[in-house]
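Dear colleague,

Following up on Tuesday's group meeting, I ran the structure prediction for the three-component complex that the binding team flagged. I've pasted the input sequences exactly as they went in, so you can double-check that nothing got truncated or mislabelled along the way. The structure tokens for the whole assembly follow below. Feel free to forward this to whoever is handling the docking comparison.

Inputs:
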Amino acid sequence: MRYLPHTEADRRAMLDAIGAADVDALFVDVPAAARLAQPLDLPRSQGEMEVERAFTRMAGKNLSAGCAPFFIGAGLYRHHIPAAVDQLLLRGEFLTAYTPYQPEVAQGTLQVLFEFQSQVALLTGMEAANASMYDGATATAEAAAMACRVTKRRRVILSGSLHPHFRSTTETALEYTEMSAELLDPDPLGFEDLFGRLGEDVACVMVQNPGFFGHVRDLRPLAAACHAVGALLVVAVGDPASLGLIESPGAMGADIVVAEGQSLGAGMNFGGPGLGLFATRDKFVRQMPGRLAGRTVDVDGRRGFVLTLSTREQHIRREKATSNICTNSGLCALAFSIHLTLLGETGLGRLAELNHAQAVRLETKLRRVKGVKPIADSYFNEFAVHLGDDVDAAAVVETLAGRGILGGVPASRFYPTYPELKPVLILAATETNTEADMDALVAALGEIL
Amino acid sequence: MADTTTLSGNRGLAIEEPLIFELGHPGRLGVDLPEPPPVDEDRLKGCRRQAPVGLPDLSEPQVVRHYTRLSQKNYGIDTGFYPLGSCTMKHNPRLAEKVARLPGLADLHPFQPQSTVQGALEVIDSLAGWLKSLTGMPAVAMTPAAGAHGEWCGLMAIRACHEDHGQGHRRRVLVPESAHGTNPASAAMCGFTVDSIPAKDNGRVDLDALRAKLGDDVACLMLTNPNTCGLFEREILEIAEAVHAAGAFFYCDGANYNAIVGRVRIADLGIDAMHINLHKTFATPHGGGGPGAGPTVLSSALAPYAPLPFVVHGDKGLTLVEHAADSGAKPFGRVKGYHGQFGVFIRALAYIISMGADGLRLASSDAVLNANYLLAGLKDVLSPSFEGPCMHECLFDDRFLKDTGVSTLDFAKALIDEGYHPMTMYFPLVVHGALLMEPTESESRETLDQYIAVVRGLAERAKAGAAESFKAAPRFTPRRRLDETLAARTPVLRWKPEAAE
Amino acid sequence: MSEMRFTKDHEWIRVDGSVGTVGISDYAQHALGDVVFVDLPEAGRVVAKGGEAAVVESVKAASEVYSPVSGTIVEGNAALVEHPALVNESPEDGAWFFKLTLSDPAEVETLMDRGAYDAYLQTLD
């Protein structure tokens, strides 16, 4: 077995040193009735070639994004990931390190986290960011709980603009707590009234910008209204690349910003592992969940980094911790950070402009297809369209897939109980799409509809 | 002594590295992208960004060098022996990295039509199948993102089940004092209160004390097994029986499942729910703090409450159930976005099918063998907290350092200078100045022998009165001991332009 | 001003008229190590004897500070927020945590005096 160094002679010699007759003697504390005398009746070990063959076979059953005109987003966007990102991730000193609890032998990870926190804070327009959460959905749930701690209130309002998974994850997280989640209906038209729901008992209002159906909103009036009643404004971001072009939530008055960061650096990977971004204002830092890297000096006075403000965390505060999170998304944070460093200010701006231009180009082409009606009045790189009253967008997507086109996500996949969403299709365009991809989609839609 | 200063501040391969913000130069690019075409209409509703983000501009060679240098300031399993108790730092097979990068698996979107991702669903289903067979449990919730998340998932299923059976008043969770901090934190997030139960002198749960704490307000017991002292709970069957007789469930923290996989089935221990840290037991990389994955196996009583989504076998192949109405069950909700830590699933499955039933059993056996070998090699110079045999890790306390002026921390830092990652320190809390060592099955006998020799030498040095040299350790690392008090009193959590500081 | 009285949780109180001043003992600050943060109660908050009133944190530990007596908070010591190290430097004087008006002055009599507290410390470790 290639991963196990011992020979039988090693094992025998070691058992002799221990003074045990055999390995079974070391398992003497296991109740006899529960001990398995031999390996379970399951497949036996295999070499690299066999294992690789098994995965190649499973991979072959999928239609991967690179093999099809691809227009799916809905919270996870297909961006080109520079080759250097993955090469650097594979460095064993990053890949095979533990959480940096021993700072003298983890300055690499710690400096990365400090740089990552700085990048996230800059991007979101906030003062401080943590070292990551599991994903955007769990970060949203954590933000709701944090807003309740900060305001000492219990009512959380979730906009219909939020990603449906962010909504349901938050609703689940609050289920058996003192906090309550109020979910507004999905909002494809961007008409919902959040102002009317505000009150002195509201801990926070949670919105997404750009919204799940595409809308870009100026959140300043909502922020002001929230603050006037002592509530916090939590803003979720679907695609961090949008922040290269759109005003940051911080500049619009957000108190907590969360995002799904997976689209930069980590790649799609069928949706996981994700990367939860989490940023807030300095005055709320001690109510934050998750790890924080901070700057300090060593005994020789040289700049270095450590994990800090740990008394918020479960390993010290136990049931009074701000969250139970321990392992987070370290390697995905590294990927995000490398990607963003390669982009820089200039590259991020260009990437964002390009994404927006691609979406405008796609929307313009789609307008020419009979029956297709764009819904959103504003968008970044993704928008919803209406395919006609009697059209089932899910069936259209299936037909497109049959033709080798991955043409967006039907809104009914998330909201099957809302008949008015049945004809709604959500489409994204990024820098990875070619003109030919768009024409293929447009032609196919023209034939199907 | 020779002069060790240099003009650059570097020392050969130990190279100082600035922050990216100190390296940038406006206009440089690390990525070539086409010039964006002009856009006619304003689709941004006047929300165009008004000020620059403030990111530095670097070229690709600078970026590659920056992260390469930073990596060289880290210790990983690839670097050397990492006996970090409770954390299971075992070898991460590179085959897993290779197959996880197959475009047919990596370049998939979670919301593609299910007909186009049958292979991906097969990965999830195959891994679920292995986890169920290995544990003997009928169901598994695949989506939790890490161990703590799995704990919470299991407790949520327990709470939902109690509520469904008119037992919603059961709000007390029993947790041993030696538990991971995540246990009480997860319980609190389900609206439970935590009641701690004491251990006996042999490091195991005091069954009589447990029985006395049980009552009809108890939702469940949370117990790590093998426990955080590296010991198997000998009375686990009696514990399970008592818990069930009281109408409560038995949650097992599966952080130490790697000690027994293939040798014991969880179902045979009377456990109702247990998370499995794929990044521990099934060798996926820790990545400097994640990502992990925490699939949670469930008994038949808890299975109906498993969260969405999950994979089932349908008429058109594998189907991902995303809504309660389609589930035929009573899912308690959703714990995260999308369908679980898919990239971690691929790696864990690659490891599992590489090892097979025989290899997995041998790995557990070797892990336990190695820990007992360390215990045997060190028990006369350190102070073992409990009698052996131990399971996959061995626990010592700081009695051997009494009156030496050397603390557990100092001892661990000295180990860094010797080229080893320290053991886990000051956990579990039930012994004084804990040193918890977990060698894992990845280490050869020679590695263990060398480590034992070094630890013995350090112990002798400490007892011989070399406290000063321990206090000064580590001396050969990129940074020496860091001022954590300064970091916490005056938090600097991000870079700011100099004028702003 | 009365003499200092102590609790088994290592808080002290000194009473002047109807107002008590509360802090943590030298033993407590020594056990905690370098104090990096304190969280103080707001004025007007009602606290019970033995109830959680403040939090004191070092790098690796967080401890509740319990009120030795019942009463209503008058003020927290703003100097500690700015300069938590004061808890280590002057635990039983400048680094008081909060002042409160006592609702039941007789409660003070149930607390240990300096001699009894020192004897109690002898029994610990």
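The domain at 357-486 of chain B is CATH 3.90.1150.10 (Aspartate Aminotransferase, domain 1).

Cheers,
M.
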